[in-house]
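Researcher: Good morning. I'm working through a list of sequences from a screen, and I'd like to move beyond sequence-only analysis. For each chain I'm collecting a predicted structure so we can compare shapes side by side. This is the next one on the list. No need for commentary yet; just the structure.
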Amino acid sequence: MILVFGGTTEGRGAIEALDEGSGHYLYSTLGDNQQVECGHGIHISGPMTESSMTDICHGNNIQVIIDAAHPFASNLHNTVHTVATRLRIPVIRFERRYPVIRSDQVLWCEDYDEAVRLMTEHNIKRLLALTGVKTIGRLAEFWHNHNNETWFRVLPRDESIECARMVGFPENHLVFYDDNDNTGQLIDEISPDAIITKESGISGGFIEKVSIAIEKGLKVFVVRRPKLPDSFITVDGPHGLRMEIERLLPDFYPLHTGFTTGSCATAAAKAALIGLVYGEKPDTISFKIPEGETLRMDIESIDIHALSASATVIKIAGDDPDVTNHSRITANVAYASHEGIHFIGGEGIGTVTLPGIGLPVGSPAINPVPRAMIEAELSPIYSDGLDVTISLENGEDLAQKTFNPRVGVIGGVSIIGTSGIVRPFSHEAFIDAIRREMEVAIAVGCDRIVINSGGKSERYMKTMYPDLPDQAFIQYGNAIGDTMHIAQDLGISHLTIGLMIGKAVKLADGNYDTHSHKVTLDREFLINVASDNGCSGHAVDTIRRLSLARELWNNLPADDADRFFPALLRLCHRQCKQIYSGNLESVLIDDSGNIRYMTK
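Model: Good morning. Structure tokens for this chain:
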């Protein structure tokens, strides 16, 4: 059991991450205003003392605490720290992301007392306070000295008004949030000398508030967020949260996540440059994935020389069947006389030989997103020229087990990854591979693309189109719908789909993902197809006794077969045309590789 303290955007993110697992959790908020849906959890509300938190942890066998509460909930953070330390429960802090804003108009304050002092020193008279109703009392010294010239924006609730009354703040100087950020409108109406806000992070609208005030020429006083206990394990996104839970509670998720080769190359390159520039050998490296979340990766080794340094990481793919799992990925970073970063493919990295994957022919197969990740991490450390060489252990042998030969990458693997994260048995990665293959097929001039479920059906379809190049044949696995969407998005004009009977009976019934975990043989549907198309009672009885779809080939009489199979294929064709509007050809293949039926 996990105990989550939420009531925030981060709290909702924690729920989403936890609901991907099979374990259970409690989701705690101070009040019951937040409506949440907890797939595997229970929502509880109300304040907690050390005693009540201890009782909940004992009574529910809490193994991990996730603190995703507001950054200024200092009392809660301290209570969590005290209870967790006493009970020896690890705490993961799901932290907000905090932007860096550099402006002479922004003045940072350690607390509200310092804010009052600085606002007085800067002769601020009229103030718009965006710090919340609970800070009215903490800023009382300021607004008492500036009669009717301070306004507080608060939530439009009765308790907000009552809270202001209790400390004597004039009710007519409360202004309220609306559904949108109304900071600019309030500034125009009130004409303050300054605003005061809290360091509330991106999810707290910090950038929007400060940017509007700066644009209107106001001073901005920002109260820094309180420091958290050093013992908290800090993450700033759902991927890092999940990885920490996987580490602390290995059974919470049935399958574990991992890192892409692009993330590994990024961490290795950053570690190498830190070694080269500063002479340091960090054990772990932090880096950002494309969506902005910061993750950390262990470094196996760093070797430092006069003009270059190398660092190695071990690729961990989690439970995804990635051929590069547990391989060593090494980055060598060397000073160079040219400007910017030049990428070099080392041992085990493939070379691009065909257009279409977003890299020039002849260049190392280090894809654009990993290149951008590496540049983003290295440029703040060293701004002059660098040569970055990426290598992967046994890459040339491993490449034969990947899609690389099909997209014209030879001699090794590609450094890939659009998200930085490998999800178990990643459907996303498979769909990305299909898209890359189609893009290559277009680039080499294929006027028709032939999609099929796997190696067996592909061999059969090649006999139908012997003159098409290898790049024209693409395997969709179970992802027929996604493949059709990609063909539509890329503007493929002529498409042929090869179907074996097992996929066909599912697709005809409207199932675009034919994985056996998601859809099974629907005999009633097949009986309706047979009946609607004049098949005999014998055919209906045969279908009713089916164990496997392939039994249809041998057990339907010829007359029934010639009614049933074309009708089934027409339904498949119709389903595909719901997505794909180009020239489509649908083919039904029997188990011996014969093209039995076709429709256009």
